[in-house]
Write a structure and sequence with these properties.
The complex is a heterodimer of chains A (369) and B (299).
Chain A (H helix, E strand, L loop, with lengths): L10 H12 L7 H11 L19 H27 L6 H18 L4 H23 L4 H21 L11 E2 L15 H24 L1 H11 L1 H6 L4 H27 L1 E2 L6 H14 L6 H23 L5 H7 L2 H15 L7 H16 L1
Antiparallel strand pairs in A: 1-2
Helix pairs in contact in A: 3-7, 3-10, 3-11, 3-12, 4-5, 4-10, 5-10, 7-8, 7-10, 8-10, 11-12
Chain B lengths: L1 H31 L6 H18 L7 H27 L6 H23 L4 E2 L9 E4 L2 E4 H23 L1 H11 L1 H6 L5 H26 L1 E2 L3 H16 L4 H21 L4 H17 L4 H4 L6
Antiparallel strand pairs in B: 1-4, 2-3
Helix pairs in contact in B: 1-5, 1-6, 1-8, 1-9, 1-10, 2-3, 2-4, 2-8, 2-9, 3-8, 5-6, 5-8, 9-10, 10-11
The chains are: A mainly alpha (369), B mainly alpha (299).
Protein name (chain B): Amino acid/amide ABC transporter membrane protein 1, HAAT family
Subcellular location (chain B): Cell membrane
Family (chain B): Belongs to the binding-protein-dependent transport system permease family. LivHM subfamily.
Chain lengths: 369, 299
């Protein structure tokens, strides 16, 4: 439908691609498969990575941290479906994540449903909610859409923190009802199982987004992202396509909420707030919006950095004067500032970085010649 | 009866607070297409600036003239921050709306964290001058005096902005720029110069809102800006960006709906009722504020 026009390859591209071309091309599935195998076999490795992780790779603390990174990786990928692939600026993604987590927690606590039934029902609920709210919100475009989704998410956030009928636990949140969860997913001894659930979720979300983006629907999304009016002029109504992306994104996010509930053993209202959606946006933009690995990479790095900064925050800056040490002990201050700098100096995120370096080197070479 | 009067005046006070935030936000958004998430940061800076000046600045204090001085200091801090943000962060990114939003998002995350690092996460008690303590009898209802102060401040800002818009050359350029930026540029007027001005005005209004919000809530916290900002966004969507009056009416409507629903139903439902009003406006007016500009908006 929307095809790339213009010159396919300029002479400069040819010389740049010259070196890799002599290498035998790997099939497209090779890198994802290798990453997946590496992640899946991680609990069997006892390697220690000094400086990066405190214990061995298969120690519960390290696995837990990586599982966290993966859950947020999957969630950021579902957000990237909206932001990077279709160009919808939604500020309400936290709502669907929280909807999945809270619905699952409530179903298991109040109705004592077993985990699979609760998971299925809460993903359904999250998908339906995003379908309904998306149908209203997508009547507006651009920045108005951002504000409207933000308002919807805020309503959800208020609802959760007001604790109606003592259901949501207010500021305290809810803990997982371990009685109805299979024993394999409970306790520190079983961190590896929880880790595999997180790997499965991240892989599923990523695969779903990749598959959808390369399908015919994905081509319309690409067109909407580039120029929505032109898509409409070509005779395709963008609205159902945008709503489809919104719904799939919401559904994937609510599945992420269920996984998050399992991995952390509970939910707190922090995942309902607007700040949480903003951090998702930061993750996606940090990695590179609309790219294959960007959201996963950005979310992993962000979560890891926030966790480690919180861990080392207090003592590692103790030698510095108070007025430097105090702001540096706030992870959000460091990450927010770094993000602003990144927007300036590395637009396109981390995945665009190798290309930028390569083109900078090429420019220098041509300048010398 | 007295309850209704109390609710109306309190609602007007809250509406005044919303107007102080939303007026700057809608000016910035209307003229520059920047969804300014850093607005909450200006608000927090204004609140903390006033609090700090009232406690530590020589000459300023928690009462009388000293408080006015503290207020001026807080507003100056917010204005300075807004001007700096426009010059150093927004200006280099002109024409790239996505990046501008991302940069303000980064600032909105970093600033509360910075305030929290310096003054802690706990709410700080805000000084309350003698003049606005206690209540006044209006039609049989006891109205807290600080609500009246808020209404006065919003009315003053409304008048000042109205005079600026209708009587000054810069106001004319800003109004024309909101309507059609490309045309103003084509007429040979550098509309970008007014961007800084609009940002400074918005920052000053937000800082004033932060300080007066401190009076309204009695405390200041680093994250107060964000929750107020969301309601200000709702006001901007309902009121549109083209007229100051629309913004004022939307502020008052949102606040009154919130107050009445919170009082007559369960607490917290009022905030949700506001979101329902927003959804209704979107469904019936097909686009709200976006209808005018959606064709040229790229973000």
């Amino acid at each position: 439908m929307i095809t790339e026009t213009g010159p396919r390859a300029t002479p400069a591209d040819d010389t740049a691609a010259g070196t890799p071309r002599t290498r035998r091309r790997l099939p497209r599935w090779a890198v994802p498969a290798a990453v997946l195998v590496a992640l899946a076999t991680l609990p069997f490795s006892t390697v220690t990575v000094p400086g990066l992780f405190e214990g061995a790779l298969n120690s519960p603390a390290t696995l837990h941290l990586i599982a966290f990174c993966l859950v947020f990786g999957g969630l950021a990928t579902s957000y990237d479906l909206l932001y990077g692939r279709v160009g919808l600026l939604s500020f309400g993604h936290a709502l669907y994540f929280a909807c999945g987590a809270y619905t699952a927690a409530l179903l298991m606590r109040v109705l004592e449903l077993p985990l699979p039934a609760a998971a299925l029902l809460s993903v359904l609920a999250g998908t339906l909610l995003s379908l309904l709210l998306g149908a209203v919100a997508l009547r507006v475009n651009g920045i108005a859409l951002a504000m409207v989704t933000l308002a919807f998410a805020q309503a959800g956030s208020i609802l959760v923190s007001r604790d109606p009928g003592r259901l949501t636990g207010g500021e305290e949140g809810l803990s997982l009802n371990t009685a109805v969860v299979p024993d394999a997913f409970v306790g520190v001894m079983n961190t590896a199982n929880l880790y595999w659930v997180a790997v499965a979720y991240a892989a599923f979300a990523t695969a779903a987004v990749w598959w959808l983006s390369s399908s015919p629907v994905g081509r319309v999304w690409q067109g909407i992202r580039a120029n929505e009016q032109r898509v409409a002029v070509l005779g395709v109504n963008p609205y159902p396509y945008k709503l489809a992306a919104f719904t799939v994104g919401g559904g994937l996010a609510s599945l992420g909420g269920v996984v998050y509930l399992l991995v952390t053993g509970g939910v707190t209202p922090t995942i309902t707030t607007a700040e949480f959606t903003l951090t998702l946006l930061v993750m996606v933009a940090l990695g590179g919006a609309g790219s294959r690995w960007g959201a996963l990479l950005g979310a992993g790095l962000y979560t890891y950095a926030e966790h480690r900064l919180r861990q080392v925050g207090g003592d590692s800056f103790a030698g510095l004067p108070e007025w430097i040490a105090a702001p540096l002990s706030q992870p959000l201050f460091i990450l927010g500032t770094l993000f602003v700098l990144m927007v300036f100096f590395f637009p396109g995120g981390l995945v665009a970085l190798p290309g930028r370096i390569r083109s900078a080197l090429r420019d220098r070479r041509t300048a010398r010649e | 009866m007295s309850t209704v009067v109390l609710l109306i005046v309190t609602g007007l006070g809250l509406g005044a607070l919303y107007f102080l935030i939303a007026s700057g936000l809608s000016l910035i958004f209307g003229l520059m297409d920047v969804l300014n998430f850093a607005h909450g940061a200006f608000l927090a800076l204004g609140a903390y600036g006033t609090w700090w000046a009232a406690s530590f600045l020589p000459g300023a204090g928690p009462d009388g003239i000293g408080f006015l001085l503290a207020l001026a200091f807080g507003v100056a801090a917010g204005t300075l921050a807004a001007t700096l943000v426009e010059l150093c962060v927004i200006r280099p990114l002109y024409g790239r709306h996505r990046e501008q939003i991302l940069a303000t998002v980064g600032l909105s995350l970093a600033t509360p964290a910075l305030l929290q690092a310096v003054w802690g996460a706990d709410p700080l008690t805000f000084p309350k001058p003698q003049l606005v303590r206690g209540t006044v009898e209006v039609l049989g209802a006891s109205i807290p005096r600080d609500r009246l102060l808020l209404i006065l401040a919003a009315a003053a800002l409304f008048t000042a902005l109205w005079l600026f818009n209708s009587r000054t050359r810069y106001g004319l350029i800003v109004r024309a720029g909101v309507q059609d930026r490309a045309m103003v540029t084509a007429l040979g007027i550098d509309v970008r110069r007014s961007f800084t001005l609009v940002f400074a005005i918005g920052g000053a209004a937000a800082a004033l809102a932060g300080a007066l919000g401190g009076l309204y809530y009695g405390v200041v916290t680093p994250t107060q800006g964000m929750s107020l900002l969301i309601f200000a966004f709702i006001v901007v969507v309902i009121g549109g960006t083209t007229s100051l009056t629309g913004c004022a009416i939307a502020s008052v409507t949102v606040a009154l709906v919130q107050q009445f629903a919170n009082y007559y139903t369960v607490a917290g439902l009022g905030d949700i009722a506001v979101v329902i009003v927003l959804a209704l406006v979107l469904l019936t007016r097909q686009g709200g504020l976006a209808a005018k500009k959606s064709a040229e908006r790229v973000a």
